[in-house]
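I had to read the description of the data format several times before I understood it. Each protein is reduced to its one-letter sequence and a matching series of backbone shape codes. The format is easy to grasp once an entry is in front of the reader. For illustration, here is how one protein appears when written out as sequence plus structure tokens:
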Amino acid sequence: MCKLVSYYTLCVFVCSQLRFASVWADDEVKIEVVQQPDTCEKKSKKGDLMNVHYDGFLAKDGKQFYCSRHDKAGHPQWFILGVGQVIKGLDIGMLDMCAGEKRKITIPSSLAFGEKGKGPVPPNATVVFQVEVYSVSRGPRSMEAFGQVDTDQDRSLTKAEIKAHLRMEFEKNGKPGDDAYYEKIITDIFRKTDTDKDGIISATEYNIYQHDEL
């Protein structure tokens, strides 16, 4: 269950038990690192595939307007960093993150929901996201990543190949799931990527961001 944690309570806990860092990122996105893993094999960059839980709050009164644990059966969200699948402030604020890292990211309205707002977020609202990263992997639209998933090297990806790759990545990061969990992720991937609906993802379909040649 998502709970609103006050800034002061969070600071007391973090300062007593965790390393704490605070920086200002581009365009006045405020980033507070509240937890870091002991080791970091990979830091996130534009085009990377991220698996994240995040909770959104209004900066003005702390009212919660979004909780990923209540969306899509409570599974962490998958998205590509830096390509507009999340608001621009999150694309900025989640750069250079590690699996196991947590941040508090404060985003001005110009990099969030703007002058019109959206749903429960009013116009011109500064928002705050509490973010926890579960995994960071090489961008799913890269030649290297495609080759890692395409185990039979036939230049297409089956559901079985993607499921095996997801299982390996989650187990490596200590977050194994059951078959139903992976099936929901795979269904979402194919819905977004298998444009001709033939049950496989071709090299052309996979490389929609054209990070490198396939």
In short: DSSP finds six helices and nine strands in the chain. Residues 3-26, 209-214 have pLDDT under 50 and may be disordered. The CA atoms of residues 118 and 133 lie 25 Å apart. The beta strands are 21-24, 30-35, 49-58, 64-67, 77-80, 102-107, 127-137, 156-157, 201-202.
